[in-house]
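Extended Data, panel c. Modelled sequence:
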Amino acid sequence: MTPIVRAALLWVAVFVVSFAGTMIGEDDVMLASGTFEVKLTPQADADSPAGRMIIDKTYIGALEGLGVGQMISKRTEGGTAVYYAIEEYTGTVGGKSGAFTLVHRGVMDKESQSLEVVILEGSGSGELETITGSMIITQDENGHAYELKYKL
């Protein structure tokens, strides 16, 4: 093999590996969407400056399962509010069964609101052991919906 052929093959190999590396990433992201029903049960924490609720969810759609957890929230007299929640999901995602933890953080003021829900890295089990991702939650007159972007 001549040095020119060897260099050309090396260049092709580098190109293929580089190209494959750019293809991995967004192409590996999967999307799961559907709806959920939620029941929030206030807890009696009279001496606490924040409210606490137990979360019970039933997921329908690409996620089939249950979410249970706790939410802590605070609303000021001026209308600013914040909440954090930890939710344990058990069920299936795209036909794979297991469990993982969702971490919620929501902030709202008079002019804006934001909600971030992420899968706690390393929390997956079963066929979902390597899951990572984030969830968008929406609510309208028909109820709650979710869109989970994830990688396995």
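The chain has one domain: 29-151. This feature is highlighted in the accompanying rendering.
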